[in-house]
Design brief:
- The protein is mainly α and about 90 residues long.
- It has one domain.
- It is about 45% helix and about 0% strand.
- The protein is built from five helices and no strands.
- The two termini are about 25 Å apart.
Length: about 90
């Protein structure tokens, strides 16, 4: 973070750095970019995984194109989904 990201926050890329309060909001933003993109272009989206209460797989769901891909994500069992939904209800 200190070596690569922090300098960009105040450098030439500052207008292209976005903050989201949770992974679902970030995923929705990415989905909106993909929706408005030229359909002849393909995109690669890199998502760095983490543990605890980030639940990046929930953001990824926002821009995946099919349910089969979603079913391959981690922590999709009923017990995990209850836990994650309870967590997201606590956020603004």
């Amino acid at each position: 973070m200190n070596k690569f990201v922090y300098p960009m926050l105040f450098g030439e890329y500052k207008d292209n750095i976005f903050y989201f309060s949770n992974s679902r909001k970030a995923g929705s933003y990415i989905a909106s970019i993909l929706k408005n993109q030229d359909t002849s272009k393909q995109s690669i989206i890199y998502v760095k995984g983490s543990q605890n209460t980030i639940f990046l797989e929930e953001g990824i769901k926002e821009f995946l194109s099919d349910n089969e891909s979603i079913s391959r994500l981690c922590r999709q069992s009923d017990s995990w989904m209850r836990k994650k939904n309870d967590f997201f209800k606590t956020l603004n």
